[in-house]
C-alpha cells in the first residue's frame, strides 16, 4: 500500500527484502562541457572508496558544466544458476546503500520495482523532497526477469542543476563496459533526463534480440526435424530419424510465447517513454510554463540542446518499436509454424494408422478367402464321397464271403474274364473326374488371386499416405 504515500519513507520496510553483498562496482561521471562530453570512470569496492568518491566528486560545482550524469553501475552478484530475484541482492553494504539513498536521492519505489520481476516496468513521477519548490523527476525501470541478464534502473533528475543521479542494478562486466563506451563516445547536445532511460531500452533491445534469434533458430530446426521425420515415416517402412523430444518442443513453444508477450510489454513501455519525452518538452522544458518555471532561467542554447536530444531519443525509440514489431511478427510466425508442423505430423500419423488398418483388413479378407476355399474343397470332397461311396459300398458288400452265388441247377457262378475292363473303366472315369475337378478348382483359385492382386494394388495406390502426400504437394505447387 505504499503507493498511497507521496514521500519516500518506505525504505525501512523495503530493505528487509534486500540482500547486501559488497562487490566491486564502477562509477561513471558524464558531464557536458563546452560542446563536448567528458566522462570519468572509477572502480569502487570498499566503503572507504565510496566515502572518498563522495567527498571528491559528488555535487562539486563546475561553472563549465551545463548538464551532468552521476551513474553507479551496480555489479551483478553471482548466484551460480539463473535467479529471477538476483537484482534484489545489492552489491553494497547496507550502511553504504543507505548513504546512497540519501546522496543520490533514490526513491523508495525502486524496491517494489526491483521485486517486480515477472514483467518490465517504466515508472516516472515528480517528487518533492525537502520543500515543495524543490522538485525532481524520478524514474524507475525494470526489465523482465523471465530470462537471464535482466536490469534495473533508478534515476533522479534535478531540474535546477540539470543533474541526473542514477544507479543501474545487475550489470555484469560486459554490460558495464558497453554502457561506459556508449556514454563516453556520445555527441549529444545536452544530457537529457531521459538519456539513461533510453539507453536502458537499448540494452533491453539487445538482450531480447539475442533471445529472439536464438529461440527462432532452435524452433526452425525443430520444425525441419519434425517435417523430415514425418516424410521419412511416410515414404519408408524402416526406422526413422529421431524427432525432438515432445517435452523439449512444448517447452520451447511456451518460451517463444512468453518471449512474444515480453516483446509486446516492453514495446508498450517504449511508447510510454516517447509520450513522456513529449511531456517533458511541453511542460518541464518549456520556458513559458508557469508551474515549472526553472526552464525560464536556463540558457536558450541549453534548452535547444535538450530539445534536440529529446528529438533524437524519440526517433530512436520509434526505430526500436519498429524492430520490436518485426520480432513480434517473427515470433507469431514461428509459433504458428510449430503448431502447423505438429498438426501435420499428427495428421500423417493418423493416415499411417489408417493405412495400417487397411492392410490388416486386407489380410483378414485374404484369411476369409482361404477359409472359404477350404470350405469349398471340403464340399467337393464330400460330393465325391457321396458319388462313389454307395457303389463302393455295394460292391464291397457283395464281394464278401457271406454270400454264395449259385445258379439254378446248383452250379457255382464264375467271374467273367473281362473283369479287367471294369477295373480299367472305373480307374479312367475316376481319374477323369478327379482331374476335371482339380483343373476347375485350380483355375478358379488363379482367377481369384489375380483379381485380389489387382484390387490390392489399386486400393494401395489410391489410399496410401505417400500418394496422398504427393497429391497434396502437387496440388499446392500448382496453386
UniProtKB/TrEMBL annotation:
Residue stretches of biased makeup (Low complexity): 462-479
Mostly located where?
A: membrane
Q: How does it sit in the membrane?
A: Multi-pass membrane protein
> Record's GO cellular component, any one?
membrane
Region of interest (Disordered), residue spans: 455-479
Domain of life per record: Eukaryota
| Subcellular location as annotated | Membrane
Keywords from UniProt, A to Z, are: Membrane, Transmembrane, Transmembrane helix
Q: Where are the transmembrane segments?
A: 381-403, 418-440
Q: Membrane among the record's keywords? A: yes
Name of the protein: Uncharacterized protein
**What species was this sequence derived from?**
Xylaria grammica
Amino acid at each position: 500500500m505504499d503507493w498511497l504515500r507521496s514521500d519516500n519513507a518506505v525504505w525501512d520496510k523495503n530493505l528487509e527484502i534486500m540482500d547486501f553483498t559488497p562487490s566491486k562496482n564502477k562509477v561513471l561521471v558524464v558531464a557536458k562541457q563546452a560542446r563536448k562530453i567528458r566522462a570519468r570512470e572509477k572502480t569502487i569496492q570498499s566503503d572507504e572508496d565510496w566515502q572518498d568518491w563522495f567527498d571528491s566528486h559528488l555535487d562539486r560545482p563546475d561553472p563549465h558544466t551545463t548538464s551532468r550524469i552521476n551513474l553507479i553501475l551496480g555489479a551483478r552478484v553471482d548466484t551460480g544458476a539463473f535467479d529471477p530475484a538476483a537484482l534484489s541482492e545489492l552489491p553494497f553494504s547496507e550502511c553504504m546503500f543507505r548513504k546512497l539513498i540519501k546522496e543520490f536521492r533514490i526513491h523508495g519505489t525502486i524496491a517494489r520495482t526491483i521485486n517486480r520481476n515477472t514483467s518490465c516496468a517504466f515508472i516516472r513521477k515528480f517528487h518533492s523532497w525537502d520543500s515543495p519548490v524543490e522538485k525532481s523527476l524520478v524514474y524507475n525501470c525494470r526489465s523482465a526477469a523471465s530470462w537471464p541478464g535482466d536490469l534495473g534502473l533508478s534515476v533522479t533528475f534535478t531540474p535546477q542543476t540539470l543533474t541526473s543521479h542514477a544507479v543501474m542494478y545487475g550489470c555484469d562486466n560486459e554490460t558495464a563496459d558497453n554502457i561506459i563506451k556508449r556514454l563516453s563516445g556520445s555527441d549529444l547536445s545536452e544530457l537529457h533526463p531521459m538519456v539513461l532511460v533510453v539507453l536502458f531500452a537499448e540494452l533491453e533491445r539487445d538482450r531480447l534480440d539475442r533471445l529472439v534469434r536464438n529461440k527462432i533458430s532452435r524452433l526452425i530446426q525443430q520444425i525441419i526435424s519434425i517435417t523430415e521425420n514425418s516424410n521419412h515415416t511416410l515414404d519408408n517402412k524402416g526406422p526413422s530419424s529421431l524427432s525432438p523430444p515432445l517435452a523439449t518442443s512444448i517447452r520451447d513453444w511456451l518460451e517463444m510465447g512468453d518471449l512474444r508477450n515480453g516483446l509486446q510489454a516492453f514495446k508498450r513501455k517504449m511508447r510510454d517513454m516517447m509520450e513522456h519525452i513529449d511531456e517533458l518538452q511541453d511542460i518541464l522544458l518549456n520556458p513559458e510554463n508557469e508551474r515549472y518555471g526553472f526552464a525560464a532561467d536556463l540558457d536558450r542554447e541549453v534548452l535547444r540542446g535538450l530539445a534536440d536530444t529529446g528529438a533524437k531519443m524519440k526517433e530512436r525509440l520509434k526505430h526500436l518499436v519498429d524492430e520490436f514489431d518485426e520480432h513480434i511478427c517473427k515470433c507469431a510466425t514461428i509459433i504458428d509454424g510449430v503448431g502447423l508442423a505438429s498438426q501435420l505430423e499428427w495428421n500423417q500419423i493418423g493416415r499411417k494408422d489408417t493405412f495400417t488398418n487397411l492392410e490388416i483388413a486386407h489380410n483378414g479378407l485374404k484369411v476369409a478367402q482361404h477359409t472359404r476355399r477350404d470350405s469349398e474343397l471340403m464340399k467337393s470332397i464330400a460330393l465325391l464321397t457321396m458319388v462313389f461311396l454307395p457303389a463302393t459300398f455295394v460292391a464291397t458288400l457283395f464281394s464278401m464271403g457271406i454270400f454264395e452265388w449259385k445258379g439254378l441247377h446248383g452250379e457255382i457262378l464264375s467271374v467273367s474274364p473281362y473283369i479287367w475292363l471294369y477295373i480299367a473303366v472305373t480307374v479312367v472315369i475316376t481319374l477323369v473326374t478327379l482331374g476335371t475337378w482339380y483343373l476347375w478348382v485350380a483355375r478358379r483359385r488363379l482367377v481369384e488371386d489375380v483379381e485380389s492382386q489387382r484390387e490390392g494394388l489399386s486400393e494401395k495406390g489410391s489410399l496410401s499416405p505417400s500418394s496422398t502426400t504427393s497429391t497434396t504437394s502437387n496440388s499446392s505447387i500448382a496453386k
